[in-house]
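The authors assume throughout that readers already know how a fold can be written as discrete tokens. What matters is that the chain and its backbone geometry are given together, residue for residue. A single example would do more here than another paragraph of explanation. For illustration, here is how one protein appears when written out as sequence plus structure tokens.
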Amino acid sequence: QIITKVLLPEAMPTIVNSVTITLVTLVSYSAMAGTVGGGGLGDVAIRYGFHRYDITIMAVTVVMLIVLVQIIQSIGDAVVRRVDHR
């Protein structure tokens, strides 16, 4: 009971914050994997933006990645505020 009633509720903001950081890191790793042929937004940015010198595609993919990271971060921060009982 001590774990479920005391320790877990106290640790929940840190756990949610860690999950948020992990998701942001996964987005950045998937973009980096796309640069070496892994697919996804990084692949689109390299293939169409960099190799074909299309600055518009490059800028749009970068903005999409930034927006995706900001959405994940905002949701994570909102959940942390909701579960934090200090």
Observations:
- Residues 2-35 form the longest helix (34 residues).
